[in-house]
Amino acid sequence: MEDGNTREPLVAGSAGGGRGGATGNQNNRNRAFVRCLSNAQDELKSFRSCLQWMCLAQSSAWATCMAWSIFVFFGLLVPIASHILMANSSCDSLHDLSFHSVVHMSLSSFATLSFVSLSRFVRKYGLRRFLFLDKLCDDSVAVKKVYTEQLNRSQKFLSFFVLPCLAAKSAYKIWWYASCSPRIPFLGIVYLGNTVACTMEIISWLYRTTIIFFVCVLFHLVCSLQILRLQDFVQVFQVDSDVASILSEHLRIRRHLRIISHRYRVFILGSLILVTGSQLASLLVTTKNGANVTVYKASELSLCSITLVTALLILLRTATRITHRAQSIACLASKWNVSAALDFSTAWKDSDSPDPQDAATRGDPFPLSIIEEPPYVGNSGNEGVLDNNQLTPVYARSIISFQKRLALVTYFENNIAGITVYGFALDRGSLCTIFGTELSLVLWLLGKTINII
What we know:
Blueprint: H1 20-32, H2 45-53, H3 61-87, H4 100-124, H5 127-130, H6 141-180, H7 190-233, H8 243-287, H9 295-349, H10 356-361, H11 368-372, H12 381-386, H13 391-414, E1 420-421, E2 424-425, H14 428-449
Antiparallel strand pairs: 1-2
InterPro entries: DUF3537
Protein name: Extracellular ligand-gated ion channel
Pfam families: DUF3537
């Protein structure tokens, strides 16, 4: 990520010199990929604070080592130690931790995927470039204003998902340690050991859930920017716009959607696989023979499932929303083409030329005389040209515009933009396919675990 007032190239320059032309081209290419200057009071201040608070800032080698060390400690070691120590605790059946391993494996796996993806985003692209802030100069003032407001509200959006999970986890763990009172090895005082263990588990849960939802919030932000651009783009159909400018703007938006899809495809696919595996494992341990499921034992498992499914729903809803908006462009372009044709028809009907529909009503289905009738020649030759209100000259002047509009509509229909995962568009049809697949897996697993009498 970017430091205070430093300028860091996005790509490394060539180590050695070369020919003058090649060196000049390389310098121009490097100059085109220079990060924007950042300062402590810019629009990314809250994001930098959040990254520093989570110890995810990787602006230097020391910061990178610190970030990975903290992740390994809170994301992997603390859950493993908690599972090993709590499994040997002498508590009653009410405090049994039968589902503890499934909870920690599911949450830690998703947190690992999120941390690796976030580290790659920050290290490779930088926060400003990843959020497309370097491309806002090409957008309208309205898009810049609304996107800046969304950046400022993103922390509230993140807290909306993290804080309820933290409150529920804290309440459960405080109740568990207060009522069970397990003895933690290597700590002689029981209350001190329970307090330290409870605090470490809560911090570990908070750390993992924050990383998961933070990556989802970043995806929601970059997709929201493309939705704002699409909303601003549809205004071109309400004014007299050139076909070339419309095509150029759509290609820009489509390129950014491909970039987002390329960056997030591994994370989206991995999230879908991990959440599916987690829910199937949860269903397996709760429906197997001899499983004693109670509210107290399954509370942590339910909270973990809600957290993971909510994160996945954020990704799928955001991707489906922007894909639906992008697909609606073809419908708007078709209506724009029809409206332009109707405007021409209305203008032609208001002229002095006879209406072909009236001619067809009179029994002449092919009123060729309307087109082939020579212009009236009066006392002056210019009067004949001025009085020429036949359809043929007007249609000849409009056929080029009609062909361009038709070509643009055909392009929109055959080049539908949106979020894709390795070529598969995440639209409403994909959601139905995912839901059907998940339901089939659930029913298959229930058929293997539940004996219907």
